[in-house]
Write a structure and sequence with these properties.
Layout: H1 10-20, H2 22-36
Length: 47
């Protein structure tokens, strides 16, 4: 499994997003999980 690093204030913005836009937050979480698994060039949003 790959590690994802948040730089600067991105983690705080990600946490804020969870409260403001639940649907977008869930979609972003799914994308981040896909990036951690297997081949990051495949999955949601890829051709």
């Amino acid at each position: 499994m790959r590690a994802i690093s948040f730089e600067g204030q991105t983690w705080e913005r990600y946490e804020e997003l969870k409260t403001r836009d639940k649907r977008l937050s869930q979609t972003l979480s799914q994308i981040l999980k896909e990036m951690q698994r297997g081949n990051p060039a495949q999955g949601r949003g890829k051709l």
